[in-house]
Amino acid sequence: MNSETGPTTLDLWNLRAARARLLAERYGASREILLFYAGLAEWQGQMAGRVKTLAGLVEFFPSLLDLVRRTGPAALGQAARDLDVSRRRVLLEEYWEGRARNWPADFFARVLLQPYAATLTPGQECPWCQEPPQVGRLRPQGEGLALDLVCALCLRCRPFPRARCPGCNESVEANLSNLSAPDFPQLRLQACETCRGYLPLVDLSRDPEAIPEVDELAGLPLDLWAHDQGYHKLHPNLAGI
Fold it and tell me: What are phi and psi for residue 203, nearest 5 degrees?
C-alpha cells in the first residue's frame, strides 16, 4: 500500500477479504457467508484491474460461475448451475440500468459490476447511487456522529441526514428507532415505522477498522430478527438478505 497515494483498487478488495475472514472467526452464525464473501472479494480484486468496459465484463462470467459453484452457499451454487448463459449480457445491462430485481440472478451481475462501478471517475454517475443503500456508516464528526450511505453497487459513500429514513424520507423522530445487540457492538439497525424498512449501520467510533459493506454481512442474526419483526431491508446484501 502506498501511504502517499492511498490504497490501490486491489488493496481495497484485499482489505475487504481480510476483514471478512477476521469477522468469520468472531461471528460463528455468519461464518459461512463471510468466508464466501472473502473469496468473492479476492476474485473481484483480481478482475478489477482488467475491467475496461461494461461489455467486457461478460468474459468474466465463466470464472465467477465456477467460483460460486465450488464455494458458494447451496442456493447460489444451484443458481450458478442453472443460469442461462445466453442471457449474460442482458443480465449485466438490466442490472446496470436498474431494471433488475430478481435474486439470485441479480447476484452475479452485481458481483461483476461492483469492480467496474468502483472505477467510475468524478462526473460519471453510478445508476444505483440514488437507490436505497445497502448499509450506512457512522463516523465521528465533532462531538457526534455523521451518517454516510454506502451505494450497493459502486460502494462509494455520500452524506445523509441521520434523523431521516433513506427509504421514505420519514423524519419524525418518534417513527425512527435504532436497534442493537451486545454481541455486535459496531452494528445497529435504523428502523422506520412508516415504511417498515431498515438500514444496517456500522459505527466507526466503536470499531475504526470496520468496513461497512463487510461488517454488515456479519449481522445476519440482526437481519433475521428484523425480518421476524416485520421489517424489510432497504437493499439486500450479496447473501440476498
Answer: -95, 105
